[in-house]
Amino acid sequence: MKFSITRPTAVLSVACAVAAPCAFADSTPDTVIVTAARIPQSAAQVIADTTVIGAEEIARSGAGSVADLLGRQRGIEIVRNGGAGASTSVFLRGANSNQVVVLVDGVRIGSSTTGAASWNAIPLSIIDHIEVVYGPLSSLYGADAIGGVVQIFTRKSEGAPQFDAGAGAGTYATRQYDASVHGSTAGAHAVSYAFGGAHEESRGYSATHPGAFGYNPDDDGYTRNSVNGRAVITLADGVEAGAQFLRSRLRAQYDNGSATFDARNIQDLDSYAVFLNGRMLPNWRSSVQLGRSEDKLGSLGSASSASQIDTRQDDFTWHNTINVGPDTLQLLYGHRKEQVVSSSSAALGRSRITNSYAASYDLQRGDHLLDISARNDDSEYGSKTTGALGYGYSFSRALRATASVGTSFRAPTFNELYYPGYGLPANKPEKGRNAEAGLRYHVAGAELQANYYRNRLTDLLVTAVPCPTGGSSCAYNVNRALLEGLTMSAATHLSGLALRANIDLQDPRDQTTGKQLARRSRRHASATADYSAGQYEAGAELQLSGQRFDDAANTKRLGGYGLLNLYTSWRFAPDWSLLVRLDNATAKRYELARYYGTAGRSWFAGLRYGIR
């Protein structure tokens, strides 16, 4: 059935039926959002479509991974080749995983060979909150921000020192431990700090099913260890300097056909940054940041088969925010070096440098909001200029409409350029042109939001068989795609009962072949009911997804599914709480990727000291 928005009333009725009382929300108007415009803004000032995942929701997620948490949000689908430690893809509004920019406290992470973030290596326990901004943001963040930007924020703290710790256990011999300390000192040169560490392990379940290449019925578990920290010192009034780091190591088993050899990946994700920011003039604030992220993947497929790919990104950013009366002008310079530090294939041992200049202007006049931004990225793939324009109008304090247009691009990965027998150095960046419109209705305790988008992509890099330049196959700029959809969300609070729901009706399509993009459904939705009474809380989550196809030719169908998750928590003392979760309560059998395993009915119980 061809996607259509000619009957929005019927679509809204479906969403409202899922949500009970028809009211929707992702954040309150007072929620502060940083990622959408690269400066702190209240949600009421943000034009871009944004979701904020707060600390409470993260705490309720139990032993789930970051990808599991994101998969419950609107506009997001995930694919994983097995358990929580397996290779994972995250799709925003139908965009590929390598068409999404991922940041950890402002530091960009991801592999230069695949172009995607290593979601399976990101520890959930370090996260304070997550901001997801949908739609093209290349005019603010440069290459790869076609589908959107996901920024993960770790904990920051002020005040007296506090200690937090947690321990939990669950199905598949899952174990989870974490601890952190955070606080600040007083005085003219105050220091705020936050440090933490975590350990997770699971026996897991078989990564593959019969029919998969390399199938082995043994359990495929994982172990993940991480440490993170941040410290900021006040140098003078309005001037501060700081440093932050994250180190995570994941050891994950996978199936490679051998019943005797333990095939496994060892993934390291590291990010570091130092920064200085201060007020240069009463209306001018400037900050500089030097960041580095490293993505290292070692694979041991057999006793005689091993590979190693280490990539690194170094970023320097100079960001200036200037208040022009009630308006805000931003000027930015960025310098990024990507390189393959180590690889089993010598042909991938390359590097590239990108220099970027960007400007944006945000203004508010009464009921009108306007933001405009432009950016130029100059690299070996050429000079790419992108821009965006957004407008919002408040009909009343409760009702606001928005509209925006923007362009974006994705730079070819090192694999698509240089991998022997696959990459072509002449490959060009993918390009995107997006237009969208939205409505948001917010009153005390209830909210309704709907966004329609149409993102047209050209010069898509796909595997061409045979290769137009010779050979059996290669990465080649040949296809066009259209990411079109309507996403709606709702929430309401009724005397201790919180209800939330979202639904996505989309048509992610390869326009060259006319086929649905692989592993993306045309309909997916979720709903949550949460009841609080004093020290007790209980809730239920429902996740729904329509059918998908595992391949670009649409010959391998993946069935739709529905998952029911239940949870309850008890704060039995001021600083102590107990969480119990039951995921996939109906023991639904389903696949996110063909012949790859997913968790059955599973439970998790966790004890925590301190307040997240």
UniProtKB/TrEMBL annotation:
It is found in: Cell outer membrane. It holds the Pfam family Plug. The keyword Ion transport applies. Residues 182-584 form the TonB-dependent receptor-like beta-barrel domain. Residues 1-25 form the signal peptide. PROSITE patterns: TONB_DEPENDENT_REC_1, TONB_DEPENDENT_REC_3. Residues 46-149 form the TonB-dependent receptor plug domain. Its main location: membrane. A motif (TonB box) lies at residues 31-37. It is a multi-pass membrane protein. Keywords: Cell outer membrane, Ion transport, Membrane, Receptor, Signal, TonB box, Transmembrane, Transmembrane beta strand, Transport. Belongs to the TonB-dependent receptor family. PANTHER family: COLICIN I RECEPTOR-RELATED (PTHR30069:SF53), TONB-DEPENDENT OUTER MEMBRANE RECEPTOR (PTHR30069). This is TonB-dependent receptor. It comes from Massilia terrae.
